[in-house]
Specification:
Blueprint lengths: L2 H6 L4 E2 L3 E10 L2 E10 H4 L6 H8 L4 E2 H14 L3 H8 L7 H18 L4 H13 L42 H4 L10 H41 L9 H10 L4 H5 L3 H15 L4 E2 L14 H4 L4 H8 L7 H15 L3 H5 L6 E3 L3 E8 L4 E8 L7 H23 L1 E2 L6 E3 L5 E2 L1 E4 L3 H10 L7 H15 L4 H8 L4 H34 L11 H9 L15 H7 L9 H24 L1 H23 L4 H9 L1
Parallel strand pairs: 2-4, 9-12
Antiparallel strand pairs: 1-2, 2-3, 5-11, 6-7, 7-8, 10-12
Helix pairs in contact: 4-6, 4-7, 6-7, 9-15, 9-17, 9-19, 9-21, 10-12, 15-17, 20-21, 21-22, 21-25, 24-25, 24-26
Length: 623
């Protein structure tokens, strides 16, 4: 048994024909064991070889993703008999060449899969082999083999935010369309439009989540009222006796009742058998065709509807999701940090709550104040206080009546097992997609709220990057810019559009084909007049332009500053690298926006390179 196995109290289990990897799945402070199996017989692998030695030395239990990738990789590459033989051979009989061959097979397997995470997954699989403690035939360890992979991690992509998606449920056409559909605004108009778009999308999401909380309150009130009502008078004495003494009722009798009567009957059955605490075999609760349960269940199956029927004791799945979204919006934390929020990390204050949680990647504590003060707070803050209050009530019931598998306050039930009710975290992408579909929101997941919030706050602050970096707790501004990437791209496009508009107007003006539009600002008019013919430093008062002096004296030297040279070189390098990408991404935009800038850049570059800055250009290009 390895040291890590002893620490975690788990081992990878071996038999003659298979190995079961001990696996943990950690999310929201939940640590539930799972198993991943490798069938040795089917793979043609024998025991006591390299594979067994490396697995025994590996971390135990393994992370679920690592174990799954490794098992899948072993099953695939072992189809090659030479690999199966290699994995069956003891390490002290293998050479460095054998291990490199194995690593290449792993890389080729993930290369053929052609998925974005190929490089990372291949590295995880190789690490299990590389971390083995056994010595090879030459006396070196597996870690000393020194293999260099040919796989490269893909460049980090900018995250799309919620404003990049269509929202047909929004009130105005401008907010229904994605922000990228705004192709008419210049950079000044676009900044204001962007801030408004981000704000309204966030407000709509928070407002919808508050409607979910309102619906929970309505359902809870209706259920409490129905629980106090007597059994329907239309029931026969036999049915009443069966219901009160045994907690059962004939299906045909239940189906002939009205929706209100079926609700009363269902609550009697739940209370009789204490189904709010545990499920009982053979007991049916007839909850079909009860409109009260429709909205919070999304019209789904009996399990989901039954979860809504327990609203007197717990929050149903959609209500927990709504609370989670509200707190994501208010705290600005990432989803994993927020899921780690537990009851002991919530402190009641005079005006609201103080929240603490641990950031998983950096192990940094995150803190947020949730304050409810009618005179000063925004709607998100009041919603956040309400969400925390509901979650604390929900978790109190979970601790009293159910089994908890996670310390996170965002637990709910799947109701798919027998016995005691078990609470765990259910906030995966599929649950968010169901939530957005039922409540008519643009499709998003937990990881989409933070970029939306960050970009709105960035615009609202007037583009203060340092303030956003401090607020997010990022060590580097590069990480912060990753959240703003899509926004920067959109602003650049708007900036390019304005440049091209001004360039077009300037060309028409200097060639006497069109006058300057009298409706534009004086500043823009001045730019149009001087863009292609900027004034010299000698004769600005007489409106003489540099182009006039060039025409009057063709031998006159063109004066260029070093900063312009550097900008021109970098801009040209960018266009060389990204020409095909820019052209193929949007041919129409490329022809109208990008191509004029490229032509001007090339012409300026050639002109500068023929002058005294030739060596500076060579130095910049070399670096």
């Amino acid at each position: 048994m390895s040291n890590s196995a002893a620490i975690h109290g788990a081992t990878h289990q071996w038999t003659d024909d298979q190995v079961i990897l001990a696996v943990k799945y950690t999310r929201g402070q939940s640590d539930r064991p799972r198993k991943v199996k490798i069938d040795l017989a089917a793979c043609g692998i024998k025991r006591y070889g390299l594979l067994e030695s490396c697995i025994d030395d590996a971390e135990c239990p393994l992370q679920q993703s690592v174990a799954s990738h490794f098992a899948g990789c072993v099953k695939a590459i072992a189809k090659d008999g030479s690999v199966a033989k290699l994995l069956s051979t003891p390490p002290n009989q293998l050479t460095r060449k054998d291990i490199i061959l194995l690593f290449k097979k792993i890389d080729n397997y993930y290369l053929e899969k052609n998925v974005q995470s190929s490089a990372a997954s291949a590295e995880q699989a190789r690490n299990i082999i590389r971390d083995g403690q056994a010595l090879l035939q030459t006396g070196i360890t597996l870690a000393q083999v020194g293999y260099k992979t040919s796989l490269k991690a893909p460049p980090r992509r900018f995250r799309k935010d919620i404003s990049d998606r269509v929202d047909i449920g929004a009130e105005s056409t401008e907010i229904q369309l994605p922000l990228s559909a705004d192709t008419k605004s210049n950079v000044y108009e676009f900044t204001g439009n962007s801030e408004e778009h981000y704000r309204k999308r966030l407000e709509r999401i928070v407002k919808t989540c508050e409607e979910v909380l309102d619906e929970h309150d309505n359902v809870k009130h209706a259920i409490d009222a129905a629980r106090r009502m007597p059994l329907p008078k239309s029931l026969l004495k036999k049915s009443i006796k069966m219901l009160t003494e045994l907690g059962r009722i004939n299906e045909k009798v239940a189906n002939r009742r009205t929706a209100e009567e079926r609700l009363i009957i269902a609550l009697k059955i739940i209370d009789h058998h204490k189904l709010y605490s545990s499920t009982v075999s053979g007991i049916r609760v007839f909850i079909e065709d009860i409109p009260l349960l429709d909205r919070l269940s999304g019209g789904k199956g009996a399990r989901t509807r039954f979860g809504v029927l327990l609203s007197s004791h717990y929050l149903s799945r959609y209500v927990v999701t709504a609370c989670f979204i509200i707190l994501l919006r208010y705290t600005g934390w990432n989803s994993d940090t927020l899921i780690g929020l537990s009851i002991d990390r919530i402190r009641r204050t005079a005006h609201g709550y103080q929240l603490f949680s641990l950031k998983e990647k950096t192990q940094q504590y995150q803190e947020s104040q949730v304050i409810s003060d009618d005179l000063t707070t925004n709607i998100e803050e009041k919603a956040a206080v309400r969400a925390i209050s509901l979650l604390l009530w929900h978790n109190s019931s979970v601790d009293k009546l159910a089994i908890r598998h996670s310390k996170s306050i965002f637990v709910s039930f799947n109701l798919s097992y027998k016995g005691k009710l078990e609470a765990d975290v259910f906030l995966h992408g599929i649950h968010f997609h169901e939530f957005t579909r039922v409540w008519d929101l643009p499709r998003f997941t937990a990881t989409d709220i933070r970029p939306q919030t960050v970009r709105y706050d960035y615009l609202k602050s007037g583009g203060d990057l340092a303030a956003q970096q401090a607020k997010l707790g990022h060590a580097s501004s590069v990480t912060t810019r990753h959240y703003l990437g899509g926004l920067d791209t959109a602003h650049n496009e708007a900036n390019i559009k304005r440049y091209c508009e001004m360039l077009k107007a300037s060309i028409l003006y200097v060639t006497n084909r069109e006058e300057i539009d009298p409706n534009i600002s004086d500043e823009d008019a001045n730019v149009i007049r001087k863009m292609l013919a900027p004034p010299t430093r000698f004769s600005s008062n007489e409106e003489n332009y540099l182009i006039d002096s060039w025409l009057a004296n063709p031998t006159e030297e063109i004066r260029v500053e070093e900063a312009l040279v550097e900008l021109c070189v970098y801009q040209r390098a960018y266009y060389i690298r990204n020409f095909r990408k820019l052209r193929d991404a949007n041919p129409k935009r490329f022809a109208t926006n990008e191509l004029p800038r490229i032509l001007v850049c090339i012409a300026l570059y050639k002109t500068i390179k023929e002058g005294e800055f030739r060596k500076l250009i060579q130095k910049l290009e070399k670096n």
